[in-house]
Known about the structure:
Blueprint: E1 4-7, H1 26-40, E2 47-51, H2 63-67, E3 73-77, E4 92-95, E5 99-101, E6 104-106, E7 120-123, E8 136-138, E9 149-150, H3 151-157
Parallel strand pairs: 1-2, 2-3, 3-4, 6-7, 7-8
Antiparallel strand pairs: 1-9, 5-6
Amino acid sequence: MSKVFFIADTHFGHRNICAYRPFNNPQEHDECIINNWNKVVTKLKYQVWVLGDMCINNKYYDFEKLIYRLNGTIHVITGNHCYLPAYNHNNIQVHQGLTKKYGFWLSHCPVHPNELRNRKNIHGHVHNKTIEDDRYINVCCDVIGYTPMELDFIRENR
Length: 158
């Protein structure tokens, strides 16, 4: 069976990312995430859901080259920093808005509590400002060690 992973707010290509994260330069940031990603996502059939803000539109950044370096089948739920033409790629499946999958709500921004309808919400957007409510699972890079989190781990521990 194929494994499923989640990560959010990778912000690949973000030229000022070091103002917000503990890296010396954007290349170090991106390489850390790529290496961590490929350590856990070891097969093409593994699914990786990026819950928004995968890359920042940047004329100096070759997003296509990056995509070929990442293992797995990539699904992106668009976020507030997503520039849709950048995701027009054969190796990326784009989903917009709220998605119901694996018994969870998947979204970039946390879903309003009244809309959860007895499901937990796997989300990004808030970076290290995790919501103190066990119905919300923050998979922003900042709180998961810049490494995609496996669905089985979420089910067992959240």
